[in-house]
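Problem statement: downstream parser choked on a complex file, so we are re-checking the raw output for the magnesium ion run. The parser issue turned out to be on our end (a line-ending mismatch), but while we're here, posting the original submission so the record is complete.
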Amino acid sequence: MFEIERDPIVHLTNERLRRLGIKAVLFDLDDTLIYTSDMYIKHMDEYSNDLARQLNIDSEIVFELLDKFNGEEYLKNGANPDNWTTVIRKVGEELSCLDLAASLRFHIDAVYTDEPAVIPGARQVLSGLKNGNILLGEVTWGKMGWTVRKNCQTGLENFMDVIVPANIYKPKNGEDWLKGMNLLGVTPEECLICGDSFRGDILPALSLGARAIFITGEDNRNETRQEITTMESVAGFWDAVLKLK
Ligand SMILES: [Mg+2]
């Protein structure tokens, strides 16, 4: 902590934010501060491998069914762990193995009990900002219980002045971000938003009049526009802030 406070790049970044009039930085959680997609894929893979081995079929077949049915349920009900009951039943029906498919559910349930991995650099960024007296918020999409657990397990809650779980029955939007700003007592102009979803994080930020840094990762590079500040991961935060206009 002591070293972070004295790190010149952290000091410079906080100064830069202050000069831009930014009092608060709001983050998305999933795939911004913690690895979430990877966690889903890992446990869906384990489920697929186990079921495929017992049915003596290719695990890709199972994975594709899981993915397809999960996508269908998500469109109907939003992000809801209960969706897996239907998803697994449909996989069981499709492969004529209802009981076996249901008995392997524990692989999927592990998504909701495993400790998520914090993305390298996230804790340093949050702690550097906190030491610069910048307000910190998180606006994340998911059920309250799961959001609380992910924050507790990773210790990220200790950095946050406010955590807002977005309405899961709609895509994350400006209303959710505005709720975070209101709770922190800041205007959009006084905020910087960082997230990996162009539609859910970056477009709402810009339409509200906040600044934004888009986390492009490996997959999202094509989505961005030239005028938008980007970073590949949260570890690039300090450099990205220096590019903000
Ligand atoms: Mg995300």
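For whoever reads this later: DSSP finds twelve helices and eight strands in the chain.
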